[in-house]
Amino acid sequence: MNDFFIPAVGAQFGLLLPYLIVAVGGLLVMLVDSFVKTVKKDHLSFLTLFILIGGILVQILTRSQGGVVLGGMLLVDDYSWFFNSLFMGVGVMTTIFATGSFDRDGVYRPEFYPLILFSILGMMVLSGANDLLTLFLGLETMSLAVYVLVGGVRGNVRSSEAGFKYLILGGFSSAFLLMGLAFLYGFAGGTGFDAIAAAMRSDQPDVLLASFGSGLVLIGLGFKVAMVPFHMWTPDVYEGAPSYITGFMATAVKAAGFAVLVRFVLLMQPQVAFTWFPVLTVLTVLTMTLGNLVALAQSNIKRMLAWSSIAHAGYLMLGVLTLISPAVGGSEMMLRSTEIGNAAGSAILFYLLAYTLMNLTAFGIINILGNRPGEDGEDINRFAGLYKKNPIAAAAMTVALLSLAGIPPMVGFMGKFYLFASVVRAGLIPLAVIGVINSLISVYYYLRVMVMMYMKEPEEDSYSGTEWVSVVTSGVLAILVIYIGVQPDAFHRLAEAIFRQINF
Amino acid sequence: MSFINDHILTLVTFVPLVGSLALWTVIKRAEFARVFALVVALVDFVLSLHLWFRFDAGRGDDQFVERVPWLLNGEVSYHMGMDGISLVLAMLTTFLGPLVILSTWQAVRERVPSFMACILFLQAAMLGTFFARDMLLFYVFWEAMLIPMYFIIGIWGGQRRIYAAVKFFIFTMVGSVFMLVGILYLYFQAGGMGLTDFMNLQIGHDAQLWLFAAFFLAFAIKVPVFPLHTWLPDAHVQAPTAGSVILAGVLLKMGTYGMLRFAMPLFPEGVAAFAPAISILAVIGIIYGALVAMVQPDVKKLVAYSSVSHLGFVVLGLFSLTPLGVAGGIFQMLAHGLSTGALFLLVGMIYERRHTREISEFGGLAHKMPVYAVFFMIATLASVGLPIMAGFIGEFMILFGTFNSETLEHGRLFAILAATGVVLGAIYMLWMYQRVFLGKLSNAKNEGLTDLSLREVVVLLPIVVFIFWLGVQPSLILNRVEASVERVLAPLTAAVAEAQGTAPSHTGILLPDGQRAEIGTAFGSDHQKFLIRDTESQR
User: How many separate domains does chain A show?
Assistant: First the structure.
């Protein structure tokens, strides 16, 4: 108990600083909003941006330090460093987009600012979770804030419906997760990841108990990352939520889900992993294929991107599968070599970065399109002739869509390259073939939006979009999508170094 | 000077890209965009002349090599190089570039800066594809080509342009993604993405068959090989003139180039297994393309189907695995690029005037447009393959090479069947010419037609000059590709022969009198001796 509190306080404070900044910042924003009478939304927006950018800077400055804090509950390492920076970066973009949307609509949602900070805090806890309790705590902190963000547009039925649906299904998935955590606790006799890893490595692990527990946890996390068959909420929630929140969910929430999922599957030992490997293989193939096939039939771009985000979760699951895919060594099945694990893990991290960039670009554009208050760019037909009305938005959207489709020289292609390369390297060639066939299918529906934007003439009710800060932000993101697509090496090396550290 | 020598390939490739970016971002005025694009394309052509004159024709390996590590600790590198095969195709690209831009001076009136940006971006991607010596780099350029072409067809195309553009994009993607899996597989066998890494690899028999199939599919769709050609007529008919010219002139050659550069040398056992089937498809393509072209009511569609037929010759020549056939295939790529490019330009010119391409709408045009008729006649005859024109040399070498092929069973039969394609080609082209240009001026709408303007003559004249120049002096090209072809072919022929179970045969060719000749004398400096005696006497 003593080393929990006394000697390490100074060091722990340093390590926890980014967490504290976001947590205290969220409270501060809430208090300022409540008690300062003269506050305007721009003030809150700047304060939030200030907090998040400050958090990112502190993260960058304290990268070299790492360690276990809060008595082993939370792990501060390069992996959490990467994800925390990613979450806060997405938070910055989302704040910009949201403020732009408020400006356009003349609607002011002060609760957005503290909630976005709290949900980012939850994600940060999740990415550093080293204990089943912190895992659950982070997941719920994140989810509760996002439930409100999704459903909080007062007077908008679709938003309320989406929020309610997400809440119910989210609660459902939490129940699975909690049950799984309970089984794992029973299996390991402790809640720490170290205890679970030790129990898994023991001579006679109770494989049944461990498999059952981790299976339930996989279901709970599968909900969060929208893996088939736990994806049903995704299209409705993505459609109903305001676009800036949809963008936030499609990027940060999904990345958080994968952050903890990857950490979790690394805990599994061969016997446990191989129980779920065939099941996960089938689910991955279904996730990719169903996501892409249903996306073909969508006429609402948010629904389309919702199904596409399911498909992308499938691609990412390919990486997760590669992490736990069996190799035959000697007479027994065992986990893949660390080298292939590193390749797959770094590919997942890189893909998450790529996916975040390109999806945020797309949602940034969707967020600002719309001619009437409360209306985002939704119907694909109304993108007609966007090149004329807003050429920068059309160009940024094109870059995002080409990248999502995996066309070089965009970052999406490089992400797929690293990912499929690791899959092929592990010998899972049929899965890679299914993956590329899927990205082929996806080309068609991404092209449809481009057809609308460039090859049709604008109509009476086509979107125009006038919110320039968001357009420029999306434009900058689009340039990043191309730049990292051409020069991905530095980022991939970073991802590899980060993953090497946690892949034990 | 050495800076230029060391970076010339990068310069040639990326000058159009920089121009494209400028057009996309800064330039807004249509007039300026046209001039700017033309200047950029001309600069690129002048730069590429450096390649042409500094190229060492005696060497078959890559020259002007640039190599910078790119990804994964240098396993993937920015590796550019150029041998004779790449040289002639790159020259074709930079040569057609300014002409294409000039041809759109009046045809494209909407969103001119974007159009020019697409053309230049496409040119950069095509050049990069020819120069890339790293498979991932190649793939990046190969896929990047799709984006501008998609927009060119989809924005500036005809009535059904969107259908054609999406079909073009998806068809090409289908092949490419399987090739990507093949590339990734090889990458982990070889531990590097360089073409040389792949070349040094020992690949098992079954793997070779699968990989060859994956690569061949990607390239065959691009060529296109029958029965994968269905995207081509749509794309050609809907594309604007400039798009058609680039498509027929250069883009289709990507497919045959890819076969020769990648699919065939990497997987000789695949070649051995599939060459008969592919040759049959090529012959079907030759005859089918010609027959379908014959019944087309639309001139542009006719020319499009003639491409299917002509590219069938190229594929047949490549898979004959004889130096003569392969060099003939390369020559035919150039000849087809020139003659079909000219034909598409000419069709575009009449379309600008009459807004129709129906053969039945025309007749007796020679009376109103004599200069146009002469140019059209030259392009027609070049396409048909009349001696002293470029088309003849290529077709002749291909047929000759196929006839004498030792690895290709029934080579003689294929050559004879393919030769009927030449006859059919003469029929459909000349028949079309007769219906459009000869006879009385029957349609009153054609009364007001004006003959070619100076700009249009300037566009056509260089192509016509080269059609004749290559026709009478094919060594201009053949000298430069000879060493490279030998370098690609010698190990390939040996490996194929071994895979077929026959003794590795000498790589020389069978002369008509039954003697063997070394490749050099077969079609090098002395090839005119027995190939084209009639032109020999003229020189």
Answer: 1
Does the CA dihedral A183-A188-A189-A190 come out positive or negative?
A: negative
Tokens 């599919």, residue? Answer: B217
CA pair distance A476, A468, nearest whole angstrom: 12
As for the ipTM of the complex, it is 0.88
pLDDT in tens, B205-214: 888 899 999 9
**Contact list, A429 vs chain B (CB under 8 Å):** 181, 185
Lookup: tokens for A409: 């020289």
Question: DSSP assignment, residue B61?
Answer: S
Per residue in B158-168, pLDDT tens? 888 889 998 99
Q: Return the number of CB contacts < 8 Å for A and B.
A: 71
A9 against B399, higher pLDDT: B399
B31 CB-near residues (< 8 Å, 6+ apart): none
In whole angstroms, give the CA distance from residue B372 to residue A363: 53
* CA distance linking residue A310 with residue A226, whole number of Å: 6
* Chain B nearest C-alpha distance from A445 (Å): 10
The reply to whether omega before B224 is within 30° of 0 (cis) is yes
Minimal Cα–Cα distance from A377 to chain B, Å?
Answer: 22
- In which domain, by residue range, is A416 found? 283-504
- Give the tens place of pLDDT for each residue, A213-256: 999 999 999 999 999 889 999 999 999 888 899 999 999 999 99
Structure-block tokens of residue A385 = 């002739």
Which residues of chain A make contact with B177, given a CB cutoff of 8 A?
Answer: 436-437, 439-440
Single-letter amino acid, residue A407: I
Q: Is A360 part of any domain?
A: yes
What residues does each domain of chain B span?
A: 2-538
* Minimum distance, in Å, between the CA of residue A327 and any CA atom of chain B: 16
pTM metric for this prediction: 0.90
For residues B220 and B254, the answer to whether their CB atoms sit within 8 Å is no
